[in-house]
Amino acid sequence: MLFPCRILAMVSLATSVFVQSASATVLTPENQQKIELAVWRYAIDTPLLLNTIDWFSELTKHSRESAAMGELSRLKYMQAQLELDKKRRVKLFEECIAIADQSLALNGNDVRGLFWKAAAMGKIAEDSGILNALKMLRPMEKMLLRVVTLDEHYENAGAHRALGRMYHKLPGFPVSFGSNQKALQHLERAYKLFPKDVITRAFYADLLFDTGNKTEARKHANFVLAAPIAEEDALEFTEYIHIALAIIEKTGGSEVKLGSF
Q: What pLDDT was estimated at residue 254?
């Protein structure tokens, strides 16, 4: 009986290895490139984004790879960003969170799942009443701090950037947990890691102005306005250009030359 048992054990082990290997091949370099292209062009090529979501949803249907599910959550986030109807937008962000939860069920420390879940919760909070928003903020903070611990470089220091913005814009105790001191720590770190990141520079400029450092604020605002913006980024970066323009206006104004589109 030992010989057949050994054969069965070997077959079982081989099957297990095959399943693990198959699941690990979902997020190949080629597939990651397709995702990056769709994410980069999401604002000007919606059909490409939607086709990529359909393709990758099918590909990950039986996947046990947390990173792949995290990337699918990222794609769904981009789709939600384009939705103008509030109810449909919230529903898409909820779908993004549900997919991120699948990623985190497979690996509770998956940086993609943590980051895009927190990002989607932030967007829902923007569309919710103050009470619902406050309930989401602490879990978001916890997830973003976890991303900082696991990989502070992810998404151009996106967790540092988001935490800095959150701490800056939230009211302080006892209403909430806003803190300009914490905001400075995170935005200074994001700036150090990715000094050419337009979003970081806009948020940092806004914070510096509000904390009284108008000279430095203007310097960062000037950088934002002078940065060349690709057509693919124009929609997303409009918000940050407006932040920079407001700071220029509040610090004396000038002739502003925007970066090329």
A: 67
| 129 shares its domain with 213 | no
| Shared-domain flag, residues 97 and 147 | yes
Axis crossing angle, helix 198-210 with helix 214-226, rounded to the nearest 10 = 160
Please list the ranges in the chain whose pLDDT falls under 70: 1-24, 129-131, 254-261
Looking at the fold, whether 126 and 163 belong to one and the same domain comes out as no
On whether residue 129 sits in a domain, the answer given is: yes
Measured distance CA(119)–CA(159) in Å, rounded: 9
Measured from the Cβ of residue 172, the count of other Cβ atoms closer than 10 Å reads 11
Token code pair at residue 35:
């995702």
How far lies 184's CA from each of 160, 162, 166, 188, in Å? Answer: 10, 12, 11, 6
Structural tokens at position 249: 């206006």
Q: What is the structure's pLDDT at 3?
A: 39
pLDDT value, residue 259: 59
What is the dihedral sign for C-alpha 46, 34, 24, 152? Answer: negative
> Is 224 inside a domain boundary?
yes
What predicted TM-score, i.e. pTM, was given to this entire model?
0.87
In a domain, 172, yes or no: yes
Q: Are residues 114 and 165 in the same domain?
A: no
Is residue 174 included in any domain, yes or no?
yes
Contact call for residues 232 and 43 (beta carbons, < 8 A): yes
d(C-alpha 96, C-alpha 78), whole Å: 9
